[in-house]
Amino acid sequence: MAGQKFDRRNFLKIAAASGALAAVSNSALAQGKPLVVGFIYVGARDDFGYNQAHAQAAAAMKKMPGIKVIEEEKVPETIAVQKTMEAMIEQDGASLIFATSYGYFDPHVLKVAVKYPKVFFAHCGGLWTEGKHPKNVGSFFGYIDECEYLSGMIAASVSKTKKAGFIAAKPIPQVLRNINSFTMGAQSVDPAFTTHVIFTGDWSLPVKEAEASNSLIDQGADVLTCHVDGPKVVVETAEKRGVFTTGYHASQLALAPKGYLTGAEWDWVAPYTTLIEAVKAGKQPPNFLRGGLKEGFVKMSPYGAAVPAKAKAAADAVKAKMVKGEFTIFKGPIKDNKGATVVAAGASQAQQDPVLEGMNYLVAGVVGSI
Amino acid sequence: MSAAAESLGWLGVPLAVFAGAIRVSTPFMLVSLGECITEKSGRINLGLEGILVMGAMAAYAASFKTGSPWFGLWAAAGVGAMFGLLHGLLCSLKRVNDIAIGIALMLFGTGLAFFLGKPYIQPKAPNLPSIPLGFWTDNPQLANALDVNPLFPAGVLLAFFLHWAFRNTSWGLKLRIVGDSADAALALGYKIIPVRIVATMCGGVLAGLGGAFLSLYYPGSWNEALSSGQGIIAVALVIFARWQPLRCVGAALLFGGAGALGPALQAAGVSGGYHLFNAAPYVLTLLILIVSCSPTRSLQGAPGELSLTRS
Questions:
Q1: Which of residues 269-308 of B touch A (CB under 8 A)?
Q2: Angle B230-240/B245-267 helices, nearest 10 degrees?
Q3: In principle, which of A85, B59, B211, B278 could form an S-S bond with B262, CB 3.0–4.6 Å?
Q4: Are the C-beta atoms of residues B178 and B192 closer than 8 Å to each other?
Q5: Hey, CA dihedral for A8, A9, A13, A16, is it positive or negative?
Q6: Of A364, A307, A318, which is closest to residue A157 (Cα–Cα)?
Q7: How far apart are the first and last CA of chain B?
Q8: Which B residues 89-128 touch A at CB under 8 Å?
Q9: How far apart are CA A150 and CA A130, in angstroms?
Q10: Within chain A, which residues score under 50 in pLDDT?
Q11: A309 by DSSP, 3-state: which?
Q12: Which of 200-229 (B) contact A at CB < 8 A?
């Protein structure tokens, strides 16, 4: 009896899955069925941060013709995301899924992708490797460290103590890359500049983020920045204490009209459009999609009132080089903060270099350890 | 922008622990004092986490809508009282387990707060003011640490009051009789259920105010990760404090200070082992519980009617 039941359920699963696959094929699209695109967020959609940046772009996608957008928020980086993806595919007929949180990639996206070879899974931030990962998985990400470098330049030009505080969630490569780029940008203005890092341990811990901000300010940091899901607490605490901030994910200018200098923001409309257009046209979407300021994947917040004109000009000059693709942030010699050489003199790691996406060090001038 | 402060170096660590004890402890203190009252009447309300989150959301929403953070406090207290009443009434039904109702209330409160709180994540609501007790010092760090929210001294005073009132007022004695022995209370002609309902409501009010402190003062904004289990920890602190209000204050201060240790050490440049330091509050609680426990007097001070102790 039990065996029979199982079989029937399996049959229904396959039937539903093949239904979803039919939606992918061009013939189905030609009949006017919309392409169902699923978006999965790890946090709340309106957190002034990472998830909001994704949700805003998803909202822009809703305006594209022939697209049906479905969304689910607050999906943890556990087996729960596998269930969400399967539900989107089997119940809603999704044929393109945007899994927007880092921890979804391995093993969750990879596992589900093997099960549904006709559905394309676009993951934000993962490192897709040819031959190792399924063909129907792709990763997209923005080189937001370009914006962090520029933010660092601005921070160093207004800081009096030459000390910034960086509140970070977890020491993963993307976070380390941001910390390092911020520091190197600041050091390009003042070589003695230091960045003090506090790792809070998770993406959203408001009380701990507030404590970390206060501690850093007490230790003399007069510019704060962060890499957590919602920068609201950090930015507001800094404004209350009268120090500067540079933002992250989205613009937090409204939260700190006095102290907000500039910030690194995502603009996911460009990569989303590329991927959706490809699936719609029945083509293989790019498995490895990256872009920076040049491609419009990331952007800078407008400068705040406290930024002097000279600093703006200097940052804009570097930005212009970045847009032309002529600027390399990780250019040797670079030493880590333990004294070891990580990029040799004369060597340079260009923006697209996948080595950078496995970063596991903090550069000299960063006070903190992984 | 104010002049940048001098770096404190190592002195920053004790200062941060001190400041953190004051800043972070208030919700723990308020919630645990409330739970202390509830448990003294012989009931456990595990739903305080839900009430805390609901109070935080209600306070932020009310402050945003009316422009007055004080109105937010009233809203949080009102919501807390209503949830306390709900718990009190449900538990008064026959064969209803207070722990199960508490867990249900915790899930209900957080879920409802997330649902109703969606539109208030982004807006900025006016925060509660602080009392600048550090006016006498030129040191900006110390002055900031001594910026105290009125709810903190109010909580400390309340603890002293409760400590006195549990022994010296008629209603304090009544509460304890009801909580220690329902039979004795009945023999004396006291109505048990109304006392327990009122005690649970008081607990709810204080938990709501604890939530208001989180969303209206520190960290001072509403979002869904705001509490991250502080209401549950506060319930544990009551047991840790052996049902004594003054010890609740001590436990809350200890917990707040220990929580500030991790970020403070990293800010001072001690960056290794931060996972361990971030776990300091929990490790410390465990250590004190282990050191202070004894086979001869475990659960000393527990109200006799508590479902924890009643066999």
A1: 269, 271-272, 274-275, 278
A2: 130
A3: B278
A4: yes
A5: positive
A6: A307
A7: 62
A8: 118, 121-122, 124
A9: 32
A10: 1-4, 22-30
A11: helix
A12: 214, 218-221, 223-226, 228
**Distance (Å, whole) CA B69 – CA A296:** 41
d(CA A329, CA A327): 7
Please answer whether residues A351 and A149 qualify as being in contact, where contact means their C-beta atoms are separated by less than 8 angstroms.
no
> Which tokens hold the place of A168?
């970070």
User: CA A309 to CA B166: how far, in whole Å?
Assistant: 65
Strand (E) or helix (H) holding B251: helix B245-267
Per-residue pLDDT reduced to its tens digit, A356-366: 988 999 999 99
Chain B residues close to A44, C-beta within 8 Å: 118, 121, 223-224
- Identify whether the C-beta of residue A35 lies closer than 8 Å to the C-beta of residue A280: yes
Return the residue matching tokens 């209330």. Answer: B105
pLDDT at A16: 58
Over residues A107-156, the pLDDT tens digits come to 899 999 999 999 999 999 888 888 889 999 999 999 999 999 999 999 99
- Residue B186's CB is within 10 A of a number of other CB atoms, namely 13
Dihedral sign, Cα of residue A328, residue A177, residue A128, residue A95: negative
Max Cα–Cα distance, chain B, nearest Å: 68
**A337: chain B residues, CB-CB within 8 Å:** none
